[in-house]
């Protein structure tokens, strides 16, 4: 199914599915390392998944090429770069920046960010007829085709409505969990696939903060192990969103986990091709 429930933006080109690259512009769970921003992944140069502080690692030329942004949820570490991206891009692109998210996410951004108080309402700038920003509502399990890839949103278990994404290219499958606590949805979606080449999954806290993980609906290494044990298989698991103030301990605990598939730490600056 191709994104049939909402209006297709004009800019969407239903070209064939292509090989994909995912550039990591941010995969930290906090600030504290100037070389590692928060959630921001660039797919095939024109699709951004999340717009956290990793946007600050982009130059204007890179930002000008982005036509689509998919947001997992409203938390600042996933959206803080969006206002600056919209502002910068409008000076090099006449077409709007399309921002795809669940309706509740869009409502929060309209009310609390693009409200002419915190930041201008770019859905009406430079005009309502030709704005710099257009929101598009998406729903779990309704596919989109953007940037030569098929993207399938799915719900995860976090403190606000949150989506993960499966991305299918012509040669592989990559999934991003975004922020999540234990969830059956993630394993059900991935176990239904013939092959999953890459999974980017979070471990925000170390095990000493397991209660904080449960309170805020995140994972720590012991909870990550429980979640990964639900997976049939995955060729590469990349762990992300570590909090910088406890990175060393969290990395140690992740390195101690043993699975049948490779478990690696994701870094800003990496490019995953699939
Ligand atoms: Zn969050």
Automatic annotation (TrEMBL):
Matches recorded under PANTHER family: HYDROLASE C777.06C-RELATED, HYDROLASE C777.06C-RELATED-RELATED
Record-given protein name: 3',5'-cyclic-nucleotide phosphodiesterase
Ranges for domain Metallo-beta-lactamase: 37-223
Annotated CDD domains: class_II_PDE_MBL-fold (cd07735)
Lineage: superkingdom: Bacteria
Pfam families, A to Z: Lactamase_B_2
GO biological process: cAMP catabolic process
GO molecular function per UniProt: 3',5'-cyclic-AMP phosphodiesterase activity
InterPro entries in alphabetical order: Metallo-B-lactamas, Pdiesterase2, RibonucZ/Hydroxyglut_hydro
Residues of the signal peptide: none
């Amino acid at each position: 199914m191709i994104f049939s429930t909402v209006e297709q933006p004009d800019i969407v080109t239903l070209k064939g599915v292509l090989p994909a690259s995912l550039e990591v512009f941010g995969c930290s769970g906090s600030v504290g390392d100037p070389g590692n921003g928060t959630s921001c992944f660039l797919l095939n140069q024109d699709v951004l998944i999340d717009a956290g502080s990793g946007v600050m690692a982009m130059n204007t030329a890179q930002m000008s090429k982005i036509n689509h942004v998919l947001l997992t949820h409203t938390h600042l570490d996933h959206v803080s770069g969006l206002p600056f991206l919209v502002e910068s891009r409008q000076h090099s692109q006449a077409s709007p920046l399309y921002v795809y998210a669940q309706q509740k996410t869009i409502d929060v951004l309209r009310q609390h960010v693009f409200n002419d108080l915190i930041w201008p309402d770019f859905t009406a700038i430079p005009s309502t007829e030709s704005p710099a920003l257009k929101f598009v509502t998406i729903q779990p399990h309704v596919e989109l085709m953007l940037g030569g890839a098929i993207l399938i949103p799915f719900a995860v278990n976090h403190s606000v409505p949150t989506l993960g994404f499966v991305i299918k290219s012509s040669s592989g499958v990559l999934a991003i969990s975004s922020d999540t606590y234990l969830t059956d949805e993630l394993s059900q979606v991935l176990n239904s696939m013939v092959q999953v080449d890459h999974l980017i999954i979070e471990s925000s806290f170390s095990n000493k903060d397991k209660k904080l993980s449960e309170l805020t609906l995140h994972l720590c290494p012991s909870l990550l192990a429980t979640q990964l044990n639900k997976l049939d298989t995955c060729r590469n698991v990349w762990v992300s969103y570590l909090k910088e103030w406890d990175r060393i301990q969290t990395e140690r605990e992740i390195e101690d986990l043993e699975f049948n598939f490779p478990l690696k730490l994701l870094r800003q600056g990496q490019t995953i091709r699939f």
